[in-house]
Amino acid sequence: MLSVEKTMLFLLSKVEQMGAQQFVEIYEHRGYTSTYIRNSLSRLKKEGYITSPSRSWYQVTAAGLAYIKAINGKPARYQEQWDHTWDVVMLEVPEAERKKRDLFRTALGQLGYGLLYNSVYISPWNYQTEVAVQIQKLELEGRVSILQGRFLEGSITPQRAQTIWELSKIAGLYKSKALWLQQEFIPAMQKALQAKQPLLLFLLYLQMGEELSGLFMADPYLPDELLPEHWTGKAITLEMSGYMQTLAQAVPPDSDYAPFIK
What we know:
Layout: H1 3-13, E1 18-19, H2 20-28, H3 34-46, E2 50-54, E3 57-60, H4 62-72, E4 86-91, H5 98-111, E5 114-117, E6 120-123, H6 128-137, E7 144-149, H7 158-164, H8 167-195, H9 198-218, H10 233-250
Antiparallel strand pairs: 1-3, 2-3, 4-6, 4-7, 5-6
C-alpha cells in the first residue's frame, strides 16, 4: 500500500463514510489528480480495506482498521522490551497464484518482517494476528505456516539484521527526512501556524501523515539489540510525530477538517 493510500484509509477510519468527491476535494489541494484518487480508492476496495455501501461512497472494513492499527502501532515497538523470541512465517504459494504471493510478501514487509531465506520471513515482534488477517484476505489458508521461538543455531546478530532489513537504506531515508524537515517542512509549518488557516494546517497535517506512513511501512522498528549504534530513527520519528500533533491541535475544532484528526 502506498503512503497516500494509507492516509486516505486513516481519514476514512475517522468518520462513518466519505464520498469520492470529498477525497478529491481534499487531495487535489495536495497535487493529486481526480483520476489518481479514484484509482487509489478502487485499489483499496479491491484489496478489501474499504467497501462501498453506495455508489461513490466508502467505508473502512475490519481488515482496513486492523491494517491501520498494525502499521501505526509499529513505532511503539521502540518502547517495548524484546523477549528474544521470533515470529517465523513460511509460505509455499505456486506460480499460478503469483499475484497473491506478491501481495502477501508486500504485506509482510510493511509489517516489519525480513526475508531470512527463500520464502521464510522473520520478525522479532509478534504480528501473528495481522498475518492471519492477510492469509484470510488473500485466501492463502494451507499455504502459510507461522512459528514462534528462539534460534538454536544461526542467531540474528546486528550485522545480519542490517542485511536482512537493509538498515543502511532505511538510515538514508531518515537522513533525507531530517534534511526535509529543516529545509522545507518546519518553515512551511511556522508560516501556517501564523496564518491560522484551517485548510493549510490540515494539508500540512496530511503531508506529515504521508511522510510518517512511508517510514512506518519501511522501518521494521527493530529492538535496540539489533540496531546499529547511533540509530536516528527513534528521534526523527518522535520529532515528526510531535509536529503532526502540533498541527492537529492548531486546526480549529469547529472547522470542516476537525473530524479527521480527532
